[in-house]
């Protein structure tokens, strides 16, 4: 329990008088695919620990909640049902879902807008999409750079016009996948929005189905699909290679043993560990130069960057988290910096400092609540080993990337499935039949 409400991972079907505090990160209408009758108002709820769950309001009750629920806002919700997830095409990773009753109560959480992250996605790397092809278990979130966007094209389906737009995105390895956006989603993004920016326009598309057409993989939008352009998720554009992770996965004991035996003292390993403590002795953040991001020196009421050789009055605060982590073999300290730390805390360091520390008499040895929420959580850490690791009195390792463990387990499972089936040819640099039916596309890069 946190205060007078429960966390999402604590929910079960044993009672119905639950109370939660959660952000509505996504909200959408669901219609019957055959007759287009309205069925429900659905949403994804996210709590302060980064857990999320799919919730549904049936059509008979929607009028009670439609005006009081807005996407992006945080609410206290109580008196609802918790049931096993029974539908196909799971929206998020959770064994349960929430159903609203006529007696469910929803109240805004007031001015609180920082305690819960704004977004959470479950990105699937392109190389693992074939494991989801034509399966109805999960809907799929993807992220990539826009490489091609086609104009909106209108189909005739059952005597009624249906709009669609085809987009191609690519990952860091230049692998491409085609996505079809249907209905209103086709006009939710424009060619100018995607192509008139830099070449790093990042597109996030949620809740898609994975299909094959003429032995080519493609994605298709659903009622639950949301499209986001250039959110601050560039770090998630970096996906691991599951085979590389398996090959270089080590326990804490094996990493320490490597230091004792290796002559080169340089390597990159992956280690899954649970966060047991946040060391605050050296603080949890640092004051950085606004230009080069390096640590700045405080001189009175101003700041000095040695690297840039200039002073400034308004510094930026960035994370430096010393995490005491543990696995079955031992424990050590992993140090996580800046954006990687922000990715798991889900709130920028400056905002945490402003809202948490200043309210506690500037006691910077206090670990703020959003960072304490990391305790007990398991992550996959990508660790960089360098010669400095053996010339230090306090053993610690720099984590250059951090991934949530459920994503690794999910990908590992899909990799095993992939090895058991004939892989489909990926849609890389291939113009499929549909492209010849639409006007000329705009291409990026």
UniProtKB/TrEMBL annotation:
Keywords: DNA-binding, Metal-binding, Zinc, Zinc-finger. It comes from the Eukaryota. Residues 138-227 form the Replication protein A OB domain. CDD domains: RPA1_DBD_A_like (cd04480), RPA1_DBD_B_like (cd04481), RPA1_DBD_C (cd04476). InterPro entries: Euk_RPA1_DBD_C, NA-bd_OB-fold, Rep_factor-A_C, REPA_OB_2, RFA1B/D_OB_1st. One of its GO terms (molecular function) is DNA binding. Residues 5-108 form the Replication protein A 70 kDa DNA-binding subunit B/D first OB fold domain. Residues 269-391 form the Replication factor A C-terminal domain. Pfam families: DUF223, Rep_fac-A_C, REPA_OB_2. Belongs to the replication factor A protein 1 family. PANTHER family: OS03G0429900 PROTEIN (PTHR47165:SF4). This is Replication protein a 70 kDa dna-binding subunit d.
């Amino acid at each position: 329990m946190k205060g007078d409400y429960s966390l999402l991972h604590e929910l079960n079907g044993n009672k119905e008088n639950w109370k939660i505090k959660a952000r509505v990160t996504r909200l959408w209408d669901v219609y019957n695919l055959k007759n287009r009758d309205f069925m429900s108002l659905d949403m994804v709820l996210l709590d302060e620990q980064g857990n999320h769950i799919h919730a549904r309001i049936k059509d008979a009750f929607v009028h009670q909640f439609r005006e009081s629920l807005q996407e992006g806002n945080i609410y206290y919700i109580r008196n609802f049902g918790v049931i096993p997830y029974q539908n196909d095409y799971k929206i998020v990773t959770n064994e349960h879902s929430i159903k609203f009753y006529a007696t469910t109560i929803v109240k805004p959480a007031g001015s609180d807008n920082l305690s819960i992250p704004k977004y959470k996605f479950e990105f699937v790397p392109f190389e693992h999409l074939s494991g989801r092809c034509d399966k109805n278990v999960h809907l799929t979130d993807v992220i990539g750079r826009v490489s091609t966007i086609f104009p909106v094209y209108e189909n005739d389906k059952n005597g009624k016009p249906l709009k669609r737009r085809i987009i191609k995105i690519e990952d860091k390895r230049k692998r491409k996948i085609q996505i079809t956006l249907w209905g209103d989603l086709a006009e939710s993004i424009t060619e100018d929005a995607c192509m008139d920016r830099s070449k790093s326009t990042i597109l996030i598309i949620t809740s898609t189905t994975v299909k094959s057409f003429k032995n080519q993989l493609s994605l298709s939008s659903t009622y639950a699909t949301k499209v986001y352009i250039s959110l601050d998720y560039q770090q998630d554009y970096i996906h691991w290679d599951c085979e590389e992770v398996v090959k270089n996965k080590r326990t804490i004991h094996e990493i320490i043993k490597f230091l004792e035996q290796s002559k080169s003292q340089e390597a990159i390993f992956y280690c899954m560990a649970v966060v047991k403590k946040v060391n605050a002795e050296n603080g949890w953040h640092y004051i950085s130069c606004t230009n080069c991001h390096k640590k700045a020196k405080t001189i009175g009421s101003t700041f000095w960057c040695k690297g840039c050789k200039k002073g400034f009055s308004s510094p930026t605060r960035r994370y430096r988290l010393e995490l005491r982590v543990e696995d079955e073999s031992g424990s050590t300290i992993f140090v996580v910096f800046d954006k990687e730390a922000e990715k798991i805390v889900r709130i920028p360091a400056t905002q945490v400092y402003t809202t948490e520390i200043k309210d506690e008499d500037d006691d910077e040895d206090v670990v703020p609540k959003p960072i304490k929420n990391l305790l007990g959580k398991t992550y996959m850490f990508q660790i960089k080993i360098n010669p400095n690791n053996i010339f230090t009195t306090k053993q610690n390792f720099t984590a250059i990337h951090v991934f949530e463990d459920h994503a690794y387990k999910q990908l590992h499972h899909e990799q095993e499935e992939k090895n058991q089936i004939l892989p489909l040819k990926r849609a890389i640099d291939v113009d499929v039949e549909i492209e010849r039916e639409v006007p000329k596309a705009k291409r990026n890069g």
